[in-house]
Amino acid sequence: MAGILQSLLMYEAKPYDIHGREILRANSKYYVVDPGLRQLLLPDYQEDYGHIIENVVFLELKRRYPNVYVGQTSKLEVDFVALNNKNEARYFQVALTTLDEHVLSRELRPLNKINDSYPKFLLTMDTLNKDANYYGIQKKNILDWLLEEKYKEEIESEFWLVFFFPIKNM
User: Which residue in 31, 92, 117, 118 has its CB near the most CB atoms, within 10 A?
Assistant: First the structure.
């Protein structure tokens, strides 16, 4: 796995204890640098739009934030914890759709367990209720989120090379 990571074909998202605010050692998740590679690398590949959009969101978070992790809170997983340069967190749950009440409840549960004031987002492909707010958890359509301009200044203030390497880490 180290060779694949060093070749930049995949990224590692380490687990992050949200309550203890520390990086954990076990159970990392891996995301391909190009979602099309997943089809090539997995012999029994089947279209799974949920995994594809999760991968796309991870790549965009890597572009926007210096540190992206998989969040752990008690026994629940938050898809992503993104930390900015000031170590301020943003929490993200990603789902293809949450139009089913059971799916919505399942996706909101981990975010509801977080007792801090950092922003929490539920990203879906839904076009109905795409700007809903669930007690401080902001739902957004993934396509709208990907096209947001408000992160442009933050991204441009960093020195980035062509392959998303922050110069400060080189």
Answer: 92
Contact 87, 81 (CB under 8 A): no
CB 123 within 8 A of CB 92: yes
Residue 73's DSSP bridge partners are 76
Vertex 127 angle, CA 154 and 79, to 5°: 55
* Token reading at 102: 């059971």
Tokens standing for residue 95: 């789902």
Q: Under 8 Å CB-to-CB from 4, ≥6 apart: which residues?
A: 10
Q: What is the DSSP letter of 38?
A: H
pTM as predicted: 0.82
Cβ within 8 Å of residue 132, ≥6 positions away:
139
> What is the DSSP-derived secondary structure letter of residue 119?
-
Of residues 112, 161, 109, 163, the one with CA closest to residue 136: 112
Kindly report, residue by residue over 47-59, the tens digit of the pLDDT. 778 888 999 999 9
Token couple for 51: 């995994």
